[in-house]
Amino acid sequence: MELDTDDELNQVLNFPLHVKMNLFDITQPFYGNFYTPDTSVVTTDLLAKGINAYYEINKPKGLYRLGCVFDWTDRRFNPHLERWDQFVKWMAPDYYDEDFDITKHFNALPVSARNLQGVNNYLYPTDLNDLSVESLRFCMNLAPNANLTFSNKQFLIDLGFSDETQIPIANSKNQYVYKNPSKSSFMRLIADNPAVINLSKKPSVLKVRMQVIATNYFSEPVLVQVTIRQSLKNDNFAAAIKTVLLDIADKENLQFNISYNKVTKVFDFSFPINDKIINPTIVVGAELAERLGFGLINDITLANKTGLPVNDKLDDALVQEKSRALAYDTGVVIITDENKSTRFTSQVPTKYMSSLYPTGTGTLEIQASDLCQTMPTADLTETGIILTEKGNVYPCFKLWRFLDNNELVPLVWIVGAFINGVLRGINPSIK
To answer: What per-residue confidence (pLDDT) applies to 5?
Structure first.
């Protein structure tokens, strides 16, 4: 109603959100079967490209990027003096024996890896003179919660990874396993040594495989942040949540999304659709779920991915008149203590506590004359109360109204309501 100050409207609201799921990687590998290079793969460059292409083609549905990608860097590059883009364009005649051509020399990585922060999207040098070979280094980039297994370490040595410090100790199956247990970032490993040009073994003896590490997966909570001013519009909530879900996709490689229909005013979440991803769930606080039209829940899943319409266009015309009409139409509201049964309350079996009467401002209040008298008390006995995990005790009160035929029924307003007041504790030893 444009009655709030900027200080009030600029307050930031924080809503935690995280995702969880089960990843099935037993009978059928999550990232596909073994990759074995064909006979045409005779150089380290072709091996890196072959691994990249295999994991791009076999990228599991629901993942934002491929599981593993190899790129390269140059030890002669100094990030303090220039940008990498400038360096590659300047070095193009040395790398490719021609001036830089963006159509030939850029976007060399698979599509899903091109926006991965920190990777080099330029074509591996094709003119490998002695100086270039000595300066170039291959880099391995491994997705979160994944491992990469090589059946033969000689190929890792050919790529330039140090046998002493960068190649894992062989496991019981004589395999070499790289692990990235992180849930929030790719692991990047830059080879210590220059790569050889030609592979030293036949490619057919190599098997490369990827698997997930944790099958029961959950992410750390992130915050959906909106100001009170922004929270009044559904579009702002959709944009804020989309930003958070894109951040999860970028860092954790898992694709969730949200859409908002401006016509129907309905929020709809989308989930990774993959028979190896079981029970993908977005976990939010009940307050955020209610604001988005999902009710007072915490888990949003494929079964309840679409909320109910949420009207964010407030009709502030004749607000007080409407409130006054609703209050007077409702009439007297009876409050009873649901924890205390009694025979002295008409039409309901629980103890009478107080009555609320309509006012000229459109609210329902306890009359001043009632406040001057001894108020009824609620006994918090062990029966009928709710004891939470934190040990809090919640007394339960119920509101009733009379219909035109004098039938007492639970109070229900289609516009909702809230109660404001103070419950006073009384020392039972005081008579």
So the answer is: 74
